[in-house]
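fyi for ur records
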Amino acid sequence: MKKKLVLLVTMLSSTALAHPHAFIEMQSKPLVEENQLIGFSMRWTLDEPSSAAVLYDMAQAKGDSVKQQKLIDDVMENIVNEHYFSYLFDKNNEKIKYKAQARNYGINLLGSHIQYYFDLLLTRPQPLKDNLFTLMTYDRTYYVSMFYPENKNAVNFSALPTNCKGEVVAPNVDEKMKSYASSLDKTQKDEDDSLGVIFAQKVKIRCD
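which gave:
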């Protein structure tokens, strides 16, 4: 998993010892058309250490639009190949598939931070009526913490019709598991790929 994340987070803090080693602050918005869920608009902001190498690469490619676009395309390809690091389920707990091509993707330069943005589209639109959707976005090994910041309205539910309500549910992680994650140093191999889902927040969309 570390190798697969290298294009997404290319530089990790050398002083970090415990899991997680890098942080991605997320924003998302459900995409709705004709009372159907068609996907999510995503914005992922990397922490400063993780952004540094990407900013360097972008500076090296300054003035060369072809090289800059290749950097963006490589990152997006990596994200898509990892199923957007996102898992979406319906009310029957059936996994919903995504299209293999993101829409409206690119990079924003926010001072010392890099922000990736893209639209994740479902293979088939899903009816909202009488349904429940659960979205989780995470790195399976918890090598990178992918989270919605509190008190920032990180998930925008404004596109949902009036018969739907959305919320972000925090994980319920016991102290034993927190201690285990903290005990893993950055040199350890990704032998445990169950950590991510344990620490993942859930975006819930309930519709009557």
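The chain is about 20% helix and 35% strand. thats all i got for now
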